[in-house]
Known about the structure:
Blueprint: H1 5-19, E1 66-74, E2 85-89, E3 114-118, E4 124-130, E5 141-148, E6 151-160, H2 170-173, H3 178-183, E7 185-186, E8 189-190, E9 197-200, E10 203-204
Parallel strand pairs: 1-9, 1-10, 6-7
Antiparallel strand pairs: 1-4, 2-3, 2-5, 5-6, 8-9
Amino acid sequence: MTFSRRRVVSGLTALTAVAIAPSVNAALLRTPSQNEGPYYPVKLPLDHDNDLVQVAGQTKQAAGEVVHLFGRVLDINGKPVKGANVEIWQCDAQGRYHHPGEGRGPADPKFQGFGKTMADKTGAWRFRTIKPVNYPGRVPHIHFRVSGKGFGRITTQMYLKDHPDNEDDFLFAGIQSEAERQSVQVSFNPTKGIDGLAGKFDIVLGGNARAE
């Protein structure tokens, strides 16, 4: 089955509306900050939208297992943060980044490697990408950076739920509490009507975030 970019965006919108439940108006656990790492793009790719699997100008999609990642940007009280900029970047299915510092060969040209989107009025955002994989020295993860008017930038990383190597990863193991470690882990599961698996990752900003 093939999917046009328009159909993907439409499907993700429907998925987000159904799957994201309203937040309880109570204090939430702030998403822990993590190292940005060495592979944030030196120069953004020409195509840097929220579909990392299909690059403009490429006839085939990226290698790897397709996943749909969605969630919301929330303040500490569970209120949506409208208009937050959400960026992700990750290695390709062979564990290589689109970065001049990548010394293990070129990354998959059909994989975008970096994506950017904006949270809507409910704080919701979404990406179509590939399930993260190991690369030397690190467990599977996706880097996130969130910024916007009225709050400081947060950088964090998302991990696979209960991956057997998580506890051996120096950055994951450095997260202070078990509750915080649980908050950055995501399960990807089959979801009807989309091409691949789906997972949810809410990002909770600190007390200086301005919800609208």
